[in-house]
Structures are given as structure tokens and as C-alpha cells.
Design a protein that fits this description.
31% helix, globular, binds zinc ion
Length: 220
Amino acid sequence: MNRILAPSVLSADFSRLGEEVRATEENGAQYLHLDVMDGIFVPSISFGLPVIRTLRPCSRQIFDVHLMITEPDRYVADFAEAGADIITVHQEACLHLDRTLQHIRELGKKAGVALNPATPAESIRWVLPQVDMVLVMSVNPGFGGQALIPYTLEKVRKLRQMLLQEGLETDIEVDGGVKLSNAREVLAAGANILVAGSAVFGKKTGANTRAFMEILDQKV
Ligand code: DX5
Ligand code: ZN
């Protein structure tokens, strides 16, 4: 499976966002992770459509949009139009998850589903064939810079097993508390996409990106 780094711009310096994003792209990060928060589904408010629209022409990366919002179905068409390539909705925020996933695919985008730490892998069992990426939250969503909750890696193992049993090679992305020091462990659990915010952005955005890419490029 393709191993991918998805730097989360939530931790970037917003006064020079274009530059920060370019540093990740030039150093090998294939995705850009965009965390949209509405202050209701999660306590924080982050950014939305205008920021994504503005960044779109600055980067050729896959735009991996993580919607931490209630009733995401109302907005998926807008995010598709703004430049999202992957649209991930939370299982917990969707009353009609099957319909929302269909909606995202009908827009020609990849459909992702995110699970909060307490949400079981089994909750998405029946929709797995309609999902292009499963996002396992390894912290409670809402903030960057938190520590990874160890039991969430057990869920990654479980999901990889479920997918194998169904004959599916679906991407598993782990989001929250991913560092250079635990990246190998996260990959070994069965994830192939790493989100990293605070461990990528900072004084050495380019060098940090390269360090992650070295780990991701190592043969398993
Ligand atoms: C948290 C967000 C994450 C966050 C990760 O709710 O979904 O994408 O930016 O940040 P770090 O890597 O610092 O935990
Ligand atoms: Zn995220």
C-alpha cells in the first residue's frame, strides 16, 4: 500500500500559510490535511471554505478535508467545489452515513469516514465497501498537540483485519498525536496514512516533513 504523509495545517503559521504548505509539498508530503471545525461538533472553530479555496492554487497535493462539523451532508458539495479531493465525515455526525458517503462519491470525490476514539470499528462495517479511507482519531478531536491514545491503535489493527476479510485495500489514516517517535508503531498497526500537525509545522517544517518521509519510505 502507498504510505502517505498528510501534514495538518492546523499547526501551521497562518501568517505565511502558502509558504508553509509549499515546504511540505517540496519535501515529499503527498497530502495536505485540512481540519474544518464548527465549534459544535468539537469545541474549537478553525477555518472553512475560503481558506481551502485560497490554498487550492498554491499546491498540487491531494486535499484531504476532515470535516469536524455537524450535519456535514449540507456542506459536502461546497467543499468539493472549493478544492477537496477527499472529504471525510464523522460517523458520529451523520444520521444517514450511507447516504452521505454516496453523496461524496457522486460528486466525484473520495469518501472518508472518521471514528472518534470511543466509536467502535464495527459501527462502519456495512458501509466499508463505500469508503475510500477510514480515519481513526487517535485523540479526541478539536485540538492539535495532544498525546496519542494507545488503545486507538488496537482499533487500527481491528479495522485492517476487517478490511482484509472483506477483500478491501482501503486506506487507513491515523490522526492525532502522531510523532516521529511513534510513526513506526502506527504503521505497524495497519495504518498507511499519517496525519501530523505539531510534529511537522514549526521552525523546521521542511526538515520535519523529510524526516517523516524517510520513515514512510522505509521498506516493511
Ligand atoms: C485534531 C485534528 C488533527 C490535528 C492533529 O482534532 O483532527 O488533524 O491537527 O494535530 P497533532 O498532529 O498535533 O496531534
Ligand atoms: Zn484531522
